[in-house]
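Page 47, continued from p. 46.
Same chain as before, 336 aa.
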Amino acid sequence: MSQSFDIAVVGATGTVGETLVQILEERDFPVADLHLLASSESAGHSVPFRGKNVRVREVDEFDFSKVQLVFFAAGPAVTLSFASRATAAGCSVIDLSGALSADQAPQVVPEANAEILATLKKPFQVSSPSPSATTLAVVLAPLLSVIDLQRVNVTASLAVSAQGREAVKELARQTAELLNVRPLEPTFFDRQMAFNLLAQVGKPDEQGHTLLEKRLVRELRQVIARPQLKISVTCIQAPVFFGDSFSVTLQSGSAVDLAKVNAALEDAPGIELVEAGDYPTAVGDAVGQDVVYVGRVRSGVDDLSELNLWLTSDNVRKGAALNAVQVAELLIKDQL
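Result:
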């Protein structure tokens, strides 16, 4: 591709932002000028890109008319503060925070609903879903043609990196304290995280559901175009630095043909199907990889219309940064 583009990354010093910059380089994205932006606290840091250290600048002072595309890889408040400024300057937006509504910025997972990009007008506003929704959409999309999907039940075991560097540091510190028989003093988490499982990620609402669980349901329904699909989700915090894992049960309206299911998964983009008798893990397989691993494909114990799956993927890379870059690749190919 001869044309190149001026790009900005907001949240460039975070775990997702840094990985996004890394993937832009790895995939030889046609970047002309790269502008790395963050809060005033992080301004002045440097991030490596194509053999150079690119200095991070303060987002408050940035003129978005200098770039054609911006990735928002910071929190929802940052997106809400600056996305409208970017589009007003003629800059297209890919948001990873979940701050924008579906009407403002539709959720896109290239393996599942890339066709939606053709319906948008410049400057584009597109959302890259939460890592959990992205992972599930990649796997559910090829199965919609081979099962009569009625219900989805998910238990998501999430890595602490979803909550940023401080959560990663906290898990490392707690682990070291316990291994060295020192008193444990939780700071980021409200209780022991190391060698433990926490039953929720974030604060629940009056019905007991967290924002992350509700976001996953909302985004997954949109991406696979099943607005009335019944989805039950429990997100738990696992003592894992990187890599999410999911126990998934799909209820079909008729008996599931496992041969067709396996064939659909085998042929689908973005999926690595693990052979029967084996299973993937976050640490041993998914971390650092660009696919969703699927294993333990089986019917229910006494219900042939039930399909059970085990999924794992790199939440920072595949679930967040890579998906956003893949969306950008489609935009520059056909529309930007």
